[in-house]
Amino acid sequence: MRLDRLQDLYVDSLKDLFSAENQLVKALPKMAKAASTPELKKAFEEHLEETKGQVERLETIFEELETSPKGKKCKAMEGLIEEGKEVIEEEGMPAVVDAALIAAAQRVEHYEMAGYGCVRTYARLLGHTRAAELLQQTLDEEANADKKLTELAETGINIEAEYSGDGESEEQDQEKPARSMR
User: Fold this and answer.
1) CATH no. for residue 57?
2) In terms of C-beta density within 10 A (0-12 exposed, 13-18 middle, 19 or more buried), how is residue 41 classed?
3) In total, how many domains does the chain have?
4) How far is the C-alpha of 49 from the C-alpha of 34, rounded, in Å?
5) How far apart are CA 123 and CA 96, in angstroms?
6) pLDDT for 165
7) Within a 10 A sphere around the Cβ of 54, how many other Cβ atoms?
8) Helix intervals (H) in 35-169
């Protein structure tokens, strides 16, 4: 595809995000299944439902553009998901694996936030007001998902991972002060 106009870049970037979101619809159930912490499992399941809504929003934008969303494979998301698969296949202490799942998921969220921030800006510049609003809604959801993952990590999972497998008794673990990463 030639990128001669901002409109070309906008459509190409939207196709990339459409591919990314559809890849995530397939990957998130696997991440949820791999999570040992109920809160993390729930966060992945909730974000799966949001992701399905994000796909629908993108389909709406493509309908308004009278353009097909197909024809592009998001190689970056493919790589990020492959890294997530590696985490899923790892053996280890459940809290440490959950911490690794959070890290993998946050890399995905940050990639998506960058992409949605760009296309939202393009939509505004091109006068696609409705699309810009839909894209902002998705950008807000991605930021909220990232925030939720950070909270899960900082208030429990990373702390538990820090003490996993250190050989100390449960009684000694209870005496340790809870630490925040903030």
Assistant:
1) 1.20.1260.10
2) middle
3) 1
4) 18
5) 40
6) 67
7) 27
8) 38-65, 75-89, 94-125, 129-152, 158-163
The whole-angstrom separation of Cα 181 and Cα 134 is 33
Give me the average pLDDT of each 10-residue run along the chain (182 residues): 92 98 96 94 96 98 96 96 92 90 96 98 98 98 95 88 64 41 34
pTM summary value: 0.86
SS3 90: coil
Residue 181 lies in a domain: no
**Rounded CA separation 99/165 (Å):** 14
Give the pLDDT score at 167.
52
How far apart are the C-alpha atoms of 5 and 28, rounded to whole Å? 35
> CA–CA separation, 19 vs 26, rounded Å?
11
CA distances from 159 to 99, 122, 170, 178, 181 (A): 9, 41, 14, 7, 9
Domain that holds residue 41: 6-161
Q: What is the predicted pLDDT for the residue at 14?
A: 98
Residue 107's pLDDT is what? Answer: 96
Q: Are 74 and 80 in contact (CB under 8 A)?
A: no
